[in-house]
Amino acid sequence: LGDVIILEASVTRAFNTSVEIYVEVFASDIKGHKSRRCNHAYFTFVALDDNKRNPIPVPAVIPLSNEEQQQYEGAIRRRELRLILAGRMKPKDATEVRKFFADLS
C-alpha cells in the first residue's frame, strides 16, 4: 500500500478581498511511524459574493505566535511579487519588497 497524505493549512494574512493560505503536505507510511514533509505551497483565494461575480471584504487575520507573525509579514512581500509578475504592479511600487532587500544590505 502507499503512503497516507496529511495536509495542514493555515491562513497567513487577509488583504481587502483575498486571503493567503499556507499548506504543508506530509506523507507517512501506512502504520504512521515515519512522517516527512513532502511539499508546501502558498495559495491565494478571493472572496466572492453569493453570485460569484464581485469580490467582497474579508475579516482581518491577527497573528499570535512568532511563526504566525513571520508568515504574516512575509505575505505582503509575496503578494507584491505576485502582482509584479502578473504585470499589475510596477517593481518601483513594491515598497515592502524593496524594504526587505534594503534591510539585507
Provide structural commentary.
The protein has two domains: 1-58, Hotdog Thioesterase (Thiol Ester Dehydrase, Chain A), CATH 3.10.129; 62-105, no CATH class. 29% of the residues lie in helices and 32% in strands. The chain is built from two helices and three strands, in the order βββαα. The chain has helices spanning 66-85, 95-104; strands at 4-14, 18-28, 35-46. Strands 1-2-3 form a three-stranded antiparallel beta sheet. It starts with a strand and ends with a helix. The model has no long low-confidence stretch (mean pLDDT 95).
Q: Identify the strand order in the major beta sheet.
A: 1-2-3
> What's the number of helices?
2
CATH class category label of the largest domain: Alpha Beta
Determine the strand fraction and express it as a percent band.
25-35%
Question: What is the element string, with H for helices and E for strands?
Answer: EEEHH
Outline: globular
Q: If you consult CATH, what is the topology of the largest domain?
A: Thiol Ester Dehydrase, Chain A
Q: What is the CATH architecture annotation of the largest domain?
A: Roll
Structural category: alpha+beta
Oligomer: single chain
Helix percentage? 25-40%
Note the gap between the termini: 50 Å
**Number of strand segments:** 3
CATH superfamily of the largest domain: Hotdog Thioesterase
